[in-house]
Design goal:
Belongs to the PsbY family. InterPro entries: PSII_PsbY. It is a single-pass membrane protein. Its main location: membrane. There is one protein chain. The chain is mostly helical. Helix content is 87%, strand content 0%.
Length: 39
């Protein structure tokens, strides 16, 4: 099984940006969901 590392090089920055965005947005989203459910 031959893996093409060019795919990894392309996906790595996208995955890193996605992980950073999720880590920034998740706490705010949880607060909003809790506030919505508390109504």
């Amino acid at each position: 099984m031959d893996f093409d590392f060019r795919i990894l090089i392309v996906l790595l920055p996208i995955l890193a940006a996605g992980g950073w965005a999720i880590s920034r947005i998740a706490p705010v989203a949880v607060k909003q969901i809790q506030a919505f459910l508390a109504k």
